[in-house]
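Two proteins, back to back. First:
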Amino acid sequence: MKFRPCIDIHNGKVKQIVGGSLRDKGDRADTNYESAYGAVYYAAMYKRDRLTGGHIILLNPASSEYYEATKEQAIQALKEYPGGMQIGGGITAENAGEYLTAGASHVVVTSYVFKDGKIYWENLKRLVDAVGREHIVLDLSCKKKPGDGYYIVTDRWQKFTDVKLNEEVLNTLAQYCDEFLVHGVDVEGRAKGAPEDLLRLLSRHGLRQITYAGGIGSMEDLETFRKVSKGRLDFTIGSALDLFGGTIPYTELVHYE
């Protein structure tokens, strides 16, 4: 169990947003924090503190007027910390190599593989052929359907798929990736704790490392996370971190185990 740092970029700025509020139309999102620093500042910090396996997420679609500014921030951060961070947001088999060349250790993929409500196995296999399973993180970010469990969501968390997150799905997809990243979208950016039923589901999976993000708002929440997940999951903290306007000291997480 270790801390994985993050850099979320929206409209060319490093931000922390309320996950469920993100909308492509008008490039809108409810913002918890907007940094005065660029992505390179945070990448340099994570490199200094030898934090590996964190992720950079581009929160604008390629159709956005802000996309190029957001992408430029990301590329510069990758160059600052080559091999130290993963990158996600609009990744395809065609552009994944560009990000690996720029310095990403892995590409984080959702909508290229999960779209129109289903898994596009052809795209997943194409991605594996392009960059290798060892460079792929599958983002299984999910939202809960009342009474029916968690379903993977795509397109910057705006669309449900018909893929229910369960042990069978995790075990099958594990053959095509090196890790999983799972945002609990219902609690993302709200700092009110992680959903324990989701943590129990994820912690039962043993084939690939999973990083969980969403809802951890205090050191007490983190200890609950440890107990419920039995220390089997890595974690990301965004809005609740003092780097991004929260109260959890970054310095306490640098060597957290």
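And the second protein:
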Amino acid sequence: MAKLCVALDVEYSRAREFLKSLSGLPIVVKVGPKLFLEAGRDICNAVKEEGFELFLDLKLHDIPNTVRLAVEQAQKIGADYLTLHTLGGREMLREAVSAGDSINLLGVTLLTSHDEEYVKFLKSTFSSVEDMVIYLAKQAHETGLDGVVCSAGEVRKVKEKTSLFTVVPGIRLSSRRHDQKRVYGPREAVKEGADMIVMGRDIYLSSEPKKVVEDVLNLILSAEN
């Protein structure tokens, strides 16, 4: 069954309450830069204490040695998943893999807030977002990463070209896109072959977050049957 990852993009005090309200549900919990900078190891410990897998979404992109050291530290605090930018290059990715023996390293291809205009901004020779994503996914595969982050629309092609675990962010229950551009619903993403879907605002802004999580888990199950 595809995994549901819940993004905790809220203040630390609310995050602690939120974790307790979801206790016992089979989910992964994502801690991003905002919350990590506020609460650091404390929030990571809280996620693990409640029995959830920890997805540390820091999207590392730095010189190879710095990234290797960061991967080592992420393992020490118990992260199960860690993101880094595939645009950081092959040497950086290899260094990360050399240190990541007990963590799932996920290469971010292109953020789901980007579209064709971003490819033009980079003055890339790629003709489309999809072509660039597939190229970056291949680099992730060849350098030994465990998975990639991409949109649902790119999952099938990534699966055709690699054996990588695929994580799809920007999942929405409604048509509200906020700052995302390549957006899909839970059922769509799972039917495309996503191994993990990431949801945030539709859950933590809800008056009944636990019910939303349970509903999404049922959607995932129905999409796979």
